[in-house]
Amino acid sequence: MCFFDEKISEALLIGLQDFEFAFSEDGEERRFYYHTQKTRELDNLLGDIYHKILDMERAIIRDLVCRVLQFLPQLTKAVNFAAELDCILSLAIVARQNNYVRPILTEDSILEIRNGRHALQEMTVDTFVPNDTKIRSAGRINIITGPNYSGKSIYIKQVALVVFLAHIGSFVPADSAVVGLTDRIFCAMGSKSMTTEQSTFMIDLHQVGTMLRHATSRSLCLLDEFGKGTLTEDGIGLLGGTISHFANYDYPPKVLLSTHLTEIFTENYLPQSEHIKCCTMSVLNPDGQASNEDIIFLYRLVPGQALLSF
Question: Could you give the 3-state DSSP secondary structure of residue 297?
């Protein structure tokens, strides 16, 4: 059978007496197939050899599938073992290359990290500034303020990563780490979803609601800029109410909360509680003005509150 990229016109086909149009095929390139006297002779001699080949291929594949399925439990076990081994080796290589340390897991609901780092962020910058974390019986609700790009979100994420890595048996990016057993890690980090047809603020509300209902003293709760997706007054009220709810616990969960809503520190939005601790990401601002372009970010977590939000 012969094929052409273009269909032969009727006038030309009459001149080619041996050519007979068979069929056309629409693929990446459209082709037109024709019989000639020689191809008709081959068809009579060999038959439809192409489709015979396809039938044989399908038969072989069916036979192979049937044979493989006989060993499905063993193959599944081998694949799972290989995946687990690959994961363990990857964690070991990263831990050795980046000077991770073995964390200490304890039954006490505490968290002490010395010079903790963000496992991913430190791979993308020339110099990463580590930070300490200390959460014991007092100061379990950490309110972190500071300007944009000062490192607030990176800090709370790095703490969560250290806790998570410790619980899966991995070394952690820090000089030392004592991690209390954690039952859940709750996050309200401004997630976006194209499938739920909900705004970022609505998703945050659902996540914080789940957090408030189910968090225990062994939980780790992360809130990044909660309340910024609505009116400022409403956001302050929601954030202040959330903090007050946690502060009323006899033994609150470990809470890391970053915010620009510094108004919560005025007008008695927050209760007086030993559970609340305020921190800020330090910056050098010579003139003390939010519009100053000479601001230098130090990325260091220090006690206190940011006087300006920008």
Answer: strand
Q: Is there a contact between 119 and 103 (Cβ–Cβ < 8 Å)?
A: no
101-303: CATH topology is: Rossmann fold (3.40.50)
Region label for 230, one of left (φ > 0), alpha (ψ between -120 and 50) or beta (otherwise): beta
**Helix (H, G, I), strand (E, B), or coil: what is residue 70?**
coil
pLDDT tens digits, 27-78: 667 777 777 777 778 878 877 777 888 899 999 999 999 999 999 999 999 9
| Residue spans per domain, the chain | 2-57, 101-303
Pick from 135, 140, 130, 152: which is nearest to 260 by CA?
A: 152
How far apart, in whole angstroms, are the C-alpha atoms of residue 132 and residue 109? 17
What distance in Å separates the CA atoms of residue 35 and residue 79, rounded to the nearest whole number? 50
Answer yes or no: are the C-beta atoms of 232 and 124 closer than 8 Å. no
Q: Which backbone phi and psi does 85 adopt, to 5 degrees?
A: -65, -40
Count of residues for the chain?
310
| Coil, strand or helix at 203 | helix
Helices and strands (H, E) in the chain, number of each type? 7, 13
Reduce the DSSP state of residue 286 to 3 states and report it: coil
CA–CA distance, 191 with 205 (Å, rounded to integer): 11
Sign of CA dihedral 272, 274, 280, 284: positive
Q: Which residues of 59-73 are buried (b: 16+ CB within 10 A; e: fewer)?
A: eeeeeeeeeeeeeee
User: How much of the chain, in percent, has pLDDT values that exceed 70?
Assistant: 88
Tokens at 257, concatenated: 């909360």
Q: For the purposes of burial, counting CB atoms within 10 Å of the CB of 157, is it exposed (0-12), middle (13-18) or buried (19 or more)? A: buried
**Rounded to whole angstroms, how far apart are CA atoms 241 and 87?**
41
Neighbouring-strand partners of residue 114: 176
